[in-house]
Automatic annotation (TrEMBL):
Gene3D superfamilies: Aldolase class I (3.20.20.70)
Keywords attached to this entry: Flavoprotein, FMN, Monooxygenase, Oxidoreductase
Taxonomic superkingdom: Bacteria
CDD domains linked: NPD_like (cd04730)
Keyword Repeat included in the entry's annotation: no
TM spans (from-to): none
The UniProt record lists the keyword Flavoprotein: yes
Record-given protein name: Nitronate monooxygenase
GO function term, MF aspect, one: nitronate monooxygenase activity
Organism: Parabacteroides merdae
Record-linked InterPro entries: Aldolase_TIM, NMO
Amino acid sequence: MNRICQLFGIQYPVIQGGMVWCSGWRLASAVSNAGGLGLIGAGSMHPEVLREHIRKCQSTTDKPFGVNVPLMYPEIDALMNILVEEGVKIVFTSAGNPKTWTGFLKGHGIKVAHVVSSSKFAVKCEQAGVDAIVAEGFEAGGHNGREETTTLCLIPAVRRATTLPLIAAGGIGTGNAMLATFALGAEGVQIGTRFALTEESSAHENFKQLCLNLNEGDTKLLLKKLSPTRLVKGEFTTAVEEAEARGASAEEMKELLGKGRSKKGIFEGNLQEGELEIGQVASLFREMQTVSEVMKEIMEDFRKGMEKIQLAL
């Protein structure tokens, strides 16, 4: 049996990325009900808002779901206690040292996966005692690793470095891409962009429609002095590029970024002033679908792809 399915108790080895302003209870429960693993994105929620989303998810699915927690979250202690109090069974952590909270979570019977951008950090994850690793290439939307390693290079490197169950992420939005990562040693995939653009995503319609009309090259990795972030090109990214070109300091970049800019763009739909985070793979998609349609299409393409490869041998 597939180790990712076994570990999380799911039908398909497809995990929905826990994305800020996109991954509320509605999206997470839809993915779980469709046979994957839905994740609530805690990064854009105050602790009590997260509690509400967990309870709503519990009331709308009887299937496993989890919560994604960026470890740099400012109220991390309160958030971790809520996860335990509300009986969350699966937590994906990112943007921080897995040693800090893995022991606490596992001590409460919670399965832990951690997101990495290099094989060096994958080894540290294994040492920290995580149950699975998400290896994310820099094609991904939002915050990325400084290494800028592509998914097709990262997966075999991480597979060589660890024996833990391995989930591929970054630039994966189709069954064929899923199949490619499996050939390189992955046992599951984490998909963000494609699920961010579904009907159940909590992202604003303006943001979804913009991303469904992107072409190749319409995103760029910026903000490298702060935290490398893949953004849709536009007014805000032009200002960022100009600041970076003149050698602006990290403090100047923080001031330019300001507060709440990703909420303004992704959740409120302000396409001029917002920080619009999306992955490169967005350019492959043109129509908004339901989560159920997306999951069905991914798994059908995955199976057809396997059949084609077998026929070609």
